[in-house]
Amino acid sequence: MATSKKKKTQQSTAVAVPIPGTLSIQGPLPVTGNFEGTVRYAKQNWEYIVVDMGNTPAAIQATLNNKGREGWELVQTYLGGMSIFKRPL
Description:
This protein is of the alpha+beta class.
């Protein structure tokens, strides 16, 4: 007779807490001010481009580095070397 072992699973809840003086926030940017414990967010607008990354590791690395220097963030890659980048307006 086989014995079954139950795996213990832990659920973790991630809570975003704005920290004064930091800019490392994912998602909408918080609006500063005293809102008595309420966090309000400003809407972020994005600009998107589609780029052919090339087909060699050196070309892909060069494209990623160049777009990163220009402020673009990689969002999605597709088969065939096409990639989508975004940056704030």
